[in-house]
Please model this.
Amino acid sequence: MKIVIQAFVASFFIHALYISSMMLIGFLKTSQYKPDVVNAWNHAGALQNEVSFGTVVSPSVYAITFLGTGLICAIVIMFYKKPA
Model:
């Protein structure tokens, strides 16, 4: 049971690291974006009238990746655990 808890904790930290890094990358890309408004008016066909803020992933995908990562972490812990 101890291996299962350790595997889920490791899986939680991996997912937290992934989600926070995606948020940081999005923040940096958004803060450093400088639109070229002057040249965009020359090509009126290239102007956008809608904005998209990324994609939406189903929560079941995160549940499946959480369990899969937990399984991989459990296998790694079992192989590298020293016998008592």
